[in-house]
Write a sequence for this structure.
């Protein structure tokens, strides 16, 4: 019988990474400059391995192949098969990430035989004056973009956003963006690792090499408008499902648990993901009980239709994600 699943984090060192995944989110690692913790993944060779219960040690893809719609939901399994449809991460940016964007489904399929990458961010923690880049500051032409890029002045066209804990942003495919130094982010995205890097702050690695840029690929993928619908506003009521974004690729809400919160999923034909972004507590299904702490992620199979969330701290916050 399926139960709430935890996975071994897949930790990735990055030139811009820091140590918050270890010191704040309690990820166990001896690595340095850890920029990303892939919480749930079936991207490439980065396949999540189950950490808890009777399936401990098994790969997520194998479990999907065995339990199919019982794990994912019927419609989800019909569309994605053994590929988990989302990539779930925590990101620690000690330094600025590159200015980048991602292709949509059509371009990604044509060029890379991959899904596109629409994503969202939730700010778990932010240092003083931490920023994100999201989109252009004003509508921009392709010609203007190319001219500023060539002069090394692309940042003059971009929109900078001061951030604090609890801020949330929706980054559709084609929108130029960058996570700034000092930001600790929960990221929910399509199951894709296709990134077009257009500017990397003239940064060099330990061997004096600059990272590859994807200037030409990015041109056809860019959205040059300054659409400001990216910052998400949401209710912050306790013991209620507060919607952040409902879209084609995922629906994400935040649940502020005070005491006990009962959740009914009977009408939902999808798996559920719970990311703990504050506090700690327990997930009870009636048969199984699984602790969840700050920085942990749990996958709730489709077959589990009811659960109760019990907070063990004064304030517990969970991101809830499904399709």
């Amino acid at each position: 019988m399926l139960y709430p699943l935890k996975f071994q984090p897949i930790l990735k060192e990055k030139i811009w990474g820091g140590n918050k995944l270890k010191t704040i989110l309690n990820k166990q690692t001896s690595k340095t400059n850890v920029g990303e913790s892939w919480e749930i993944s079936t991207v490439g060779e980065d396949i999540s391995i189950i950490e808890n219960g009777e399936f401990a040690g098994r790969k997520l893809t194998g479990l999907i192949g065995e339990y199919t719609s019982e794990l994912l939901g019927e419609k989800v399994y019909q569309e994605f098969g053994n590929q988990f449809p989302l990539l779930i991460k925590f990101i620690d940016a000690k330094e600025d990430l590159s200015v980048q964007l991602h292709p949509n489904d059509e371009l990604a399929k044509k060029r890379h035989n991959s899904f596109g990458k629409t994503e969202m961010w939730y700010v778990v923690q932010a240092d003083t004056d931490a920023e994100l880049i999201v989109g252009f500051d004003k509508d921009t032409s392709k010609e203007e973009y190319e001219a500023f890029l060539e002069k090394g002045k692309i940042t003059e066209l971009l929109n900078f956003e001061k951030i604090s804990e609890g801020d949330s942003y929706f980054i559709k495919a084609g929108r130029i963006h960058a996570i700034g130094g000092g930001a600790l982010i929960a990221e929910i995205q399509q199951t894709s690792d296709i990134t077009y890097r257009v500017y990397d702050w003239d940064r060099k690695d330990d061997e004096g090499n600059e990272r590859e840029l994807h200037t030409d690929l990015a041109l056809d993928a860019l959205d040059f408008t300054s659409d400001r619908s990216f910052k998400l506003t949401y209710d912050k009521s306790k013991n209620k499902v507060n919607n952040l974004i409902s879209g084609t690729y995922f629906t994400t809400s935040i649940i502020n648990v005070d005491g006990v919160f009962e959740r009914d999923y009977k009408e939902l034909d999808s798996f559920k993901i719970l990311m703990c972004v504050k506090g700690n507590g327990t997930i009870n299904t009636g048969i199984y009980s699984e602790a969840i702490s700050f920085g942990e992620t749990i996958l709730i199979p489709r077959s589990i239709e009811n659960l109760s969330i019990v907070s063990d701290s004064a304030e517990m916050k969970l991101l809830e994600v499904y399709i």
Remarks:
- The two ends are 22 Å apart (CA to CA).
- The helical segments are 20-23, 60-67, 69-72, 74-80, 105-112, 142-150, 215-221.
- The first strand starts at residue 10 and ends at 18.
